[in-house]
Structures are given as structure tokens and as C-alpha cells.
Amino acid sequence: MTELLNMFSYSFIQRAAVVGILVSLCAALLGVSLVLKRYSMIGDGLSHVGFGALAIAASLNLAPLAVAVPTVIIAAVFLLRLSQNSKIKGDAAIAIISSSSLAIGVISVSVTTGMNTEISSYMFGSILSLSPSDAVLSVLLSVAVLGLFIVYYPRIFAVTFDENFSKATGTKTQVYNTLIAVLTAVTVVLGMRMMGALLISSLIIFPALSAMRVCKSFKSVVLCSGGISVFCFMVGLVASYFMETPTGASIVAADLIVFGIFSLIGRKK
Fold it and tell me: Cα 90 to chain center, whole Å?
């Protein structure tokens, strides 16, 4: 217990815990809609866009989040439009945007600063990369994402389960699909600082899939997913500190174990 208290005496751990809990909640709540709408890999695609934006920002000595957040939001909206209104659908659209963005980011880094520690932290994640100013901005944006999700929860539920029926009843489905895409984009950028571009999609996918193994209603899945996400984040954070393992990978490992347990529970029902 003393060692655990000592762990949370470090300011960077405190920042990581606060931001991580909020981002985990955002990712889990949005993840339910994304998984049900078969957009579960959008987080992976947007994380590559985020890496490209963060790499360019670092190369030009610009504020990382100030560049990455609007860039990924634009990419999310563009991806939604591309998938709905062209011959390039779903996974193909995500693959095109993600691979192109990753290539642009790598090229910009190679011709300027090179693959330094800061750039590596964007790729693989690092709790040390979260500065106090980044933490404040992350908290504000996370609270905004959670607030918008709660306010528009009935509409998000409607467009998730039956978009055609929602459109027929007068719901502006395009607006709420765009809202989901924008909130996902913000969450992905915030989570990348700790999880990295390669692992951030796990925060979106795993908790939702685990909750769906044991819960039946949309509301219960959302609540369970949020609880699982926060629990796995804290377990991963503590495990990474005591076992000296990468934080992002430790969180994913915790999510994987919980998914296995919930899958077994679901089979016995």
C-alpha cells in the first residue's frame, strides 16, 4: 500500500491518471457506437492521421495538440463523407487515409528532426510526454466530449441502432454521425500521448466488445464499457509502474485479459 501511495506522489503519474481516466471513458462510450456501426477501426486510422499531424508540429516547433486536434477532426469528417458518398467504402477509406498520413509524418520527421524521443512517444506512447499544459487542455477537451455525449445520448443511440428509421422520423442523422466522428477524433488525439498511435484503437474496441459479451441493452453496454475501460487503464498504469513495462502495452494487456474473462462469462449464460 505504501508503494502504491508513493507511486501517486509523482506529479506525472497524477496527470496521467486524471487524463487517462477521462480519455478512457470517452473512448469506451464512443467505442460502443463505433463497434455497432462497424467503424471500430476508425480509431486506428485517425491515430495515424494524428501521428502525421504531431510529427509535422514537432518538426515545425508548433504546439502539438493545437495542430493535431483540428487536423484529425477534419480527417474524421472527410473519412465519414468519403465512406458514405463514394465508391471507396469503410475499411478501404480508412486504409487510404491512415497509410498516407503515416507516410507524410515519417517523411516530415526524416527531413527535419529525425526520429527523436518525442516522435517515438507519439508512435508508442509515453506518460512522461504529458506536460502540465497538455494535461489541462486534455481534461477540458475530455469533459467537453463526455458532456456532448451525455447531452446527445438519445440521438446517438438512435443513429447507432437504426439510422434509416431515425432519418425517416426527421432526425438529422448526418449531423449526429459527424458529431460521433468529431468526438472520436478528439479522443484519439488525447489518448495518443499515453497509448501511442499503434495502440490507441484498443481503448475504443476492447471495452465495448467485452461489455457486449455480458450486457444486452445499449445503456448497460455503455455503462459497463466505461467501467471496464477505467478499470483496465488503472490496472495497466499500476502494472507498468511496478513491472517497468510500457504503459500503453500494459493497458492493452489488461483489456485483453478482461475480454477473455467476459467472453467466458458470456458463454456460460
Answer: 18
Exposure of 198 in the CB half-sphere (CA atoms within 13 A) = 12
Measured distance CA(29)–CA(196) in Å, rounded? 20
Grid cell, residue 112, equals 527535419
Tell me whether residue 19 is exposed, middle or buried, using C-beta atoms within 10 angstroms of its C-beta: 0 to 12, 13 to 18, 19 or more.
Answer: buried
Letter for the amino acid at 254?
A: A
| Distant-in-sequence, close-in-space partners of 17: CB < 8 Å, separation ≥ 6 | 8, 234, 237
Q: Tell me what pLDDT residue 37 has.
A: 79
pLDDT one-digit tens code per residue, 4-49: 778 878 888 888 889 889 999 999 998 888 888 777 777 778 888 8
Q: What does the alpha-carbon distance between residue 245 and residue 29 come to, in Å, rounded to a whole number?
A: 27
Q: Which phi and psi (to 5°) does residue 89 adopt?
A: -105, 155
User: Which of 32, 18, 24, 1 is CA-nearest to residue 213?
Assistant: 32
